[in-house]
Amino acid sequence: MNETARKILAPIVFIVGILALWEFAVWYNQLPDFRMASPSDLFPHYAEFADLFIVKSWETLWRTVVGLALAVVVGTLIGMLMGFSRFARDGLYPILVGFNAIPKATVVPIVALMFVGQHDFNTILIAFMISFFPIAVSVSIGLSTLEPEYRDILRSLGASNTTIFWKIALPKTLPEFFGALKVAVTLAFIGTNLMEIVSPHGRGLGDLFDSARISSDYPLMFAVLFAMAALGIVLFYIVVFLERIFAGWAERAPS
Amino acid sequence: MTTANPMIELKSVTHAYKTKAGPLPVLDALTLQIPENSFCAVVGPSGCGKSTLTRLVSGLMKPNEGEVWLHDQKVTSPRPTVGMAFQNPVLLEWRTILQNVMLPFEIVKSPMSKAEAHDRAMHLLDLVGLAGFEGKRPSELSGGMRQRASLCRSIIHKPDVLILDEPFGALDAFTREDLWCTMHDLREAEPFTCLLITHDLRESVFLADQVIVLSGRPAHAQYVLDVDITGKRTLDDLYTPKAAEMLATLRHQIQVAQGRATDADAPLDGHPTKAEGAA
Ligand SMILES: Nc1ncnc2c1ncn2[C@@H]1O[C@H](COP(=O)(O)OP(=O)(O)OP(=O)(O)O)[C@@H](O)[C@H]1O
Ligand SMILES: [Mg+2]
Q1: Within this chain, do residues B213 and B255 fall inside the same structural domain, yes or no?
Q2: Which CATH number does the domain housing residue B192 bear?
Q3: Is A153's CB within 8 Å of B90's CB?
Q4: pLDDT value at B269 more than 50
Q5: Where are the domains of chain A?
Q6: What is the pLDDT of residue A252?
Q7: Which of chain A's residues have a Cβ under 8 Å away from the Cβ of B79?
Q8: Of A97, A134, A195, B90, which sits 20 to 30 A from A170 (CA to CA)?
């Protein structure tokens, strides 16, 4: 089997297999809908609520992406600060670790109170807060562990520090950065959904989930979970795609 | 050798590294002069401070004491008229070999046009035997090939001063001898002043106008040998009695630097020792 075919076929085989297993388990145990929905229950719901799924997915999606973009910008800036200044690194590190340790579910009500009614802003804020940490850490490590040999190549030609950053430090850090971005994208997505579910405000897949819960529509709840998973996969592979383009050189050919 | 206008001049340079165990003196009142467009090879025991010397001349580091002068100017920071090939030939792995070789043009202003620069890069890659590899990534090259690419990068922008830190260390004997001849051709085509660090005594004699033997750490210039081979050099020049005598002298001086011989032990006149014959 060739490479591309395997990459596409393997996930399909596994997804179909798992769905079949699940369908069988529910059918075999005669589980009622309110205990466990089966895949065959989901499709009618997707068909019935297609418009809703599209609108809600879009709301979740754009707020996740904006939150993540913010995390990339702020995380990179903090990472640069910590990467270039030992003082900043020693000072900021414990604070960042502490901040990261706070369960974001506890931050949601606080944010919701602070900026009452600013639902989009609050959601983006949570997505940002939950996802910038790995980016900041990876950028700072990437920069602070840059081998002096790399710097010397350009320094010996009289290059400025800015030039060295753009031509050496930044590209050299890209693989680490994308590694962190793969973690961050999922975290941002979780952050968005957290806000939508813990502080319902009528937007996003989280809201759809909440409505389903209130109306005890179990299959719909499952349908939402799967939509979330699908969206998460899409976001993740967008990052993988970007990584290929910008840091593909770091990938070694399989040997 | 003293001239009115040496291209590279070290005036009593003393340098020590700060280490956890206290300062480590590496260079001790090192004084040397390299005339414009001449070729100077520096040999000395491992760890005596040769790479340190290159970093001081290129301006990557400042000496604790003493001064480094390049072309009548005191060196305080790196300058674009210097080309440098490091002992550890680091290439940027996200760039192709050609992009790596062309890197200096992105920093240094050059009168060459884009097309000329490109042609020069391809020409140099061809000279060092890397034709056809310009589109490859560094990870696809062997250590010796990377070293040759790094050599091209150091010279691509036509520097006035070329500093080479064991540029042929990872090469087999035959490629190495080819590149020695290439170096001579390059100098003939476009003169530059060269400071070469090497472990290979034959290399130093074949390439250099003067060979400086550094003492053990902390290093000073222990011995200076003027290589008086006139005319265009060929590899055969290494097998003359005169060359053998020079090699023996250098070898003896290295042993003195290593503390394995004293000045009293006379070099084997005119008989290269086994090690050099085999090198
Ligand atoms: N950045 C550094 N910090 C502390 N000590 C250093 C540093 N760089 C080199 N040294 C020490 O200085 C001494 C001289 O180092 P240098 O690299 O100049 O030697 P070298 O003559 O080039 O050796 P070799 O022939 O093995 O390359 C060594 O003992 C080394 O341990
Ligand atoms: Mg060295």
Answers
A1: yes
A2: 3.40.50.300
A3: yes
A4: no
A5: 1-30, 37-249
A6: 67
A7: 158
A8: A97
Global ipTM:
0.81
Q: Ligand 1 centre from B40 Cα, in Å?
A: 20
| Ligand 1 pocket: which of B52, B147, B163 to mutate (most atoms within 8 A of CB) | B52
Residue whose CA is at the smallest distance from ligand 1 atom 17 = B51
How many angstroms separate the CA atoms of A163 and A161, rounded?
5
Residue B86 lies in a domain: no
Mind listing the pLDDT tens digit for each residue in B120-170?
999 999 999 999 999 999 999 998 899 999 999 999 999 999 999 999 988
CA–CA separation, A176 and A186 (whole Å): 16
* Interface residue A169 vs chain B (CB under 8 A): no
Ligand 2 centre to CA of B189 (Å) is: 29
**Do residues B249 and B166 share a domain?**
yes
Residue contact A156–B82, C-beta within 8 A: yes
pLDDT of residue B83: 93
Helix (H) / strand (E) containing B162: strand B161-165
Rounded to an integer, what distance in angstroms lies between the CA atom of residue A162 and that of residue B174? 42
* Ranges of chain A with pLDDT below 50: none
Q: Give domain status of residue B60, yes or no.
A: yes
The CATH code of the domain at A37-249 is 1.10.3720.10
Lowest mean pLDDT among A224-228, B35-39, B91-95, B225-229: B225-229
